[in-house]
Write a structure and sequence with these properties.
By secondary structure, the chain is of the alpha/beta class. The chain is about 40% helix and about 20% strand. The N and C termini lie close together (about 10 Å). The protein binds 5'-O-[(R)-(carboxyoxy)(hydroxy)phosphoryl]adenosine and zinc ion.
């Protein structure tokens, strides 16, 4: 079965073709970060307009690159939520229209389900059940992934998502957008221990997160008339250390609570090198197997949507025609899937 996947939930236009026998055949991504950089964050209307410009050329490109004609496809998957309403509508409209024109079934995919299945695009993929740490610009979730489509959220952020905290902190340090990679680069030049920020909500039981206080701690440390490059790097380092420590502490806690021995990490912040190293250490300290997608598939991409689409379409699920999108869509409200 061969599925075209389309991702347009935020500021990346991603298109990919996944084949159940051959694996990922091709993928293309256009990042709008240059477009939004001058505003210091995503401007929804600009994002929608740019998806309109890019989605069809990228689709043509990826189909040509993997030598696939419309009649070679068996279905189309697009991100139906959560995300920016206008941006989601572009992917949904294009996905549904192509499916109608090419007489194919179509399915709307939950963006975070795409992220959590992304490690399955790698060699030696994890099997269900497992624990998932999903860390992106819009979400910070720890979830019990019991089976395909059977998800239980164990911890969530009560305020900012961790990626959002990276982005806001980078903005106040003048490091630009997107903030995650910019903070990581600056932190590499930072002095260890010059600042120490709190590890929010680790001093009480539970798996929820709060990252807005951490951003405020960084703002206070950066409050200087002249913010010299070394101070910026030191604040970035203290911020990254505190954010990563907090995520690791909560993962350890969730692993102990569930007894799971498999952990997957996905979403844009999963591309963070320090987080990857700290979680990889759990392999020896807790005998836990940790699975990451390659960094390019941690951040938004079409491949994860094509894979998630294949898994749902192969189980017989499909959406009727119409541009149903869900800008807010709880992960644990999805229908369970009987895997093929
Ligand atoms: O999953 P994603 O591409 O889009 C959303 O679904 O939100 O995640 C984007 C987020 C942004 O907040 C970005 O700053 C963060 O992931 N990010 C990182 C890194 N690369 C991207 N955060 C920390 N370190 C990174 N290397
Ligand atoms: Zn994402």
């Amino acid at each position: 079965m061969r599925v075209l996947g389309i991702e347009t939930s935020c500021d990346d236009t991603g298109v990919a073709v996944y084949d159940s026998e051959l694996g990922l055949l091709g993928h293309r991504l256009f990042s709008q970060s240059g477009l939004h950089a001058e505003y210091g964050g995503v401007v929804p209307e600009l994002a929608s307009r740019d998806h309109i410009r890019k989605v069809l050329p990228l689709t043509r490109e990826v189909l040509a690159a993997c030598n696939t004609q419309p009649h070679d496809l068996h279905g189309i998957a697009y991100t139906a939520g959560p995300g920016l309403a206008g941006a989601l509508l572009v992917g949904a409209a294009v996905g549904q229209s192509l499916a109608w024109a090419w007489h194919l079934p179509a399915i709307g995919i939950h963006h975070m389900e795409g992220h959590l299945l992304a490690p399955m695009l790698e060699p030696d993929p994890p099997s269900f059940p497992f624990l998932a740490l999903l860390v992106s610009g819009g979400h910070t979730l720890i979830a019990d992934i019991q089976a395909h489509g059977r998800y239980r959220v164990l911890g969530d952020s009560v305020d900012d998502a961790v990626g959002e905290a990276f982005d806001k902190t980078a903005k106040l340090l003048g490091l630009g957008y997107p903030g995650g990679p910019a903070i990581a680069r600056a932190a590499a030049r930072g002095t260890p221990g010059r600042f120490r920020f709190p590890r929010p909500m680790t001093d009480r039981p539970g798996l929820d997160f709060s990252f807005s206080g951490l951003k405020t701690a960084a703002a206070l440390a950066a409050k200087e008339q002249v913010l010299d490059p070394q101070r910026i790097a030191d604040v970035a380092r203290a911020f990254q250390d505190a954010a990563v420590d907090t995520l690791v502490i909560k993962c350890e806690r969730a692993l102990a609570a569930t007894g799971y021995r498999r952990l997957i990490v996905a979403g844009g912040v999963g591309a963070n090198q320090l987080l990857r190293e700290r979680l990889a250490d759990l392999t020896t300290s807790l005998q836990v197997r940790v699975y990451f997608p390659r960094p390019d598939f941690c951040t938004d991409n079409g491949a994860m949507i094509a894979l998630a689409g294949y898994m749902r379409l192969a189980a017989g699920l499909r959406d009727g025609p119409g541009f149903g999108i869900h800008p807010r869509w709880p992960l644990d409200s999805l229908l369970p899937v009987d895997c093929p």
